[in-house]
TrEMBL record:
InterPro entries: FkbM_mtfrase, SAM-dependent_MTase, SAM-dependent_MTases_sf. This is FkbM family methyltransferase. The keyword Nucleotidyltransferase does not apply. PANTHER family: METHYLTRANSFERASE, FKBM FAMILY PROTEIN, SLL1173 PROTEIN. It comes from the Bacteria. It comes from Phreatobacter oligotrophus. Residues 47-181 form the Methyltransferase FkbM domain. GO terms for molecular function: methyltransferase activity. The keyword Nuclease does not apply.
Length: 253
């Protein structure tokens, strides 16, 4: 693929993502209802792995300030245009990990939503049902920040959304203090990453959990469960469940 063909393919994929993630009013309403449990007017949310900013938009509709991290130039450009002039959105074109510096992303040109910093994620997807045809066809080097660094720069968030395609445990390794609430994505091709995230959160503080599968925006349990129960639930999910987001809330007092 020539450089021009690659740029065109990236533009088409990003445009498709904008329509998919911003175009459905029912999905927006469901998203706002879900995140409204964690995000309040005047609060602060971090969106780690913002892609084309649908969660950023939800957090803003809910009245929160947002720090958005998106390392890919195309999606980051979309966020910059969508929220141009909005002082409530701070866009950082960077990845997030265990330590600050630089990191290499494996880019999926045709489907940038699954671009990743995790070689293990790419290896797990190879040959897995539901992941057929996914190709990570180039690499880019990008800045890497940490959650601790973002907190130092912007303050303690009320909520952090982490969606970084198999790199979630590395992101949490860069957090040294409990925060009120967060979510992390998991996949059934890498359940070990979800277990590592649960272990990290248990080490940080007394968290309780719920989960929403896919893009349902619907909690599975409706009441918080402990780390062991959540790990057992993820272990028992069929492969076809594919992915979801675990929501963690810090137990007060």
């Amino acid at each position: 693929m020539s450089d021009l063909d690659q740029r065109i393919a990236e533009m088409v994929a990003v445009a498709r993502s904008v329509v998919t993630y911003h175009g459905d009013p029912e999905k927006r309403a469901a998203m706002d209802a879900l995140y409204g449990r964690f995000v309040r007017p005047g609060g602060l949310a971090f969106d780690i792995g913002s892609h084309v900013g649908d969660r950023v938009a939800s957090f803003r509709r809910l009245g929160a300030r947002v720090v958005a991290l998106e390392p890919q130039p195309g999606p980051a450009g979309v966020i910059a245009r969508l929220f141009e002039g909005d002082a409530g959105v701070a866009l950082r074109q960077a990845a997030c990990g265990a330590s600050a510096g630089e990191i290499t992303l494996k880019v999926n040109t045709a489907n940038p939503t699954v671009t990743t910093a995790s070689a293990a994620f790419v290896a797990s997807a190879a040959g897995a049902g539901g992941w057929e045809g996914q190709v990570w066809d180039r690499e880019i080097t990008v800045p890497c920040l940490t959650l601790d660094g973002l907190i130092a720069d912007h303050g303690v968030p009320d909520f952090v959304k982490i969606d970084v395609e198999g790199f979630e445990a590395d992101v949490l390794a860069g957090l040294s203090r409990p925060i009120p609430a967060l979510s992390f994505e998991f996949t059934t091709i890498q359940r070990d990453v979800a277990f590592a995230c649960l272990d990290r959160l248990a080490a940080l503080g007394p968290y309780r959990f719920d989960v929403a599968l896919g893009e349902s925006q619907q909690m599975t349990f409706g009441s918080a469960i402990d780390r062991q129960a959540m790990a057992a639930h993820i272990a028992d999910l069929p492969h076809e469940a594919n992915s979801g987001d675990v929501y963690a809330v810090l137990v007060k007092g």
